[in-house]
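Known limitations

Files may contain more than one protein. Parsers should not assume a single record per file. Below, a two-record file is shown to illustrate correct handling: read the sequence, read the token line, then continue until end of file.
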Amino acid sequence: MESFKAKHDDYNAIMAEALADRLAEAFAEYLHKRVRGEWGFGKSESLSTDDLIAEKYRGIRPAAGYPACPDHTEKGILWDLLDAEQHTGIKLTESFAMWPGASVSGLYFAHPESKYFAVGKLGKDQVEDLSKRKGKSTSEMERWLGPWLNYNPA
């Protein structure tokens, strides 16, 4: 990718980046399938490609910053606990995006009743409560949770 950028070959740089992103997502799906098998509840799965795309398997892998886990700052806590940068070379930006971009992270939940859900819009009372529990100011949490707020911050 960098060699394409050095040659000002924008088309191939974009295509290489898009391919790298898709490969990272595919590998995450492969790991999820492997985990389901190793944890025992996916050994008997005989799912078609369409079934896999439709996520008809047991378990979920939500990630920070998505509707089921809107608080991106949780990724920083996990990065520190796992010493992820040291072990993987993947860095977090100031906005908790991963670098390089062709990186994925998430959590595995194996419970048979685990399902994706959207948290929905957050009220000021919820943000204030979360702020207290995280030891952060309400305005800082409002900045991180902006798209999910059900009010206009002051």
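...continuing to the second record:
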Amino acid sequence: MRCFGDGYPKIELHVHLEGTVRPETLLEIARRNDYALPCTTVEELRALYAFRDFAHFIEVWILTTNALRTSDDFRQVVVDYAREAAGHGAVYIEGIFSPAERVRRGVGWDEIFSGYCDGAEEANERFGVEVRLTPDIVRGFPLDEAAEVVRHAARYRDRGVVGIGLGGLEAEFPPEPYEPVHAGEVAGAASVRGALDALGADRIRHGIRSVEDAGLVRELAERQLVLDVCPISNLRTRAVASLEEHPLPQLIAAGVPCSISTDDPAMFDTDLTRDYDAARFLGVEPRASYEAGLRGALCDEATKSLLRGIGEATDWAATTATLETMRTDDAHGTG
């Protein structure tokens, strides 16, 4: 019988693979590629990773992603994160990556895609985690680069690429211009509406500011369109001022399915357990998070059937009772 970390399985639909690279892995890859880092020890890198503000996050993101140069680097990133996530109960992951950024640094398209796909296969073989891939079109990049992402994604669809995402600075670059090639964390409900209407989105990344538009919330609920909610990330980036003010409970109460993910766990000092715990703090029980993840997953029906079976075999009532007991013990200082 498989152990699910803290006792229950998890599905993660929104994690940027470049943002999963822990300091130990970054140091190893940088040495392998003779890439100069501003630090020489894991401890110094950990201090550098400590989130200060969004500009600092971008600085660390660039530092990390520029170290990734070979197919083996991309493979290792997937395998290392699968190992970590499996320890937190992950059974299915949809990993995001931004290939056009690496191509601009001289890495070949096929080297990037094949490396990530190799990693997804190895992750399943070694840790039993189903990994699928959703490469990103970067907002602000020209349409010809966006079209290349789509072309290469189609070429690798038989190796685990299941969709295309749109990421980056949504306030500066709305989604509508990307309609020919084919949201919602900081730019407001209009960004979500644009993704729905112009791009025909099957799922919305973040989307928490949908609560600003009651009509949009009703539409999301009616269509049962899943939002990828990343509570700790929203807190770190100050998309929400505090966890208590997070709109997740409002969205759930309105009938909008919300999956739970980490976004950039290495850079936001989080992991899958902590984000699921944050969701529980906001009143969303593990079963609801898992079922929203299953609904939003872009994988084939055979994989969905496998995940459905895992969910049906899980004693969710016992899971909730155990977690409640642990929380009570912690509150009384006995945990």
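Parsers that stop after the first record will miss the second one. For reference, the second record is described as follows. The first helix runs from residue 23 to 32.
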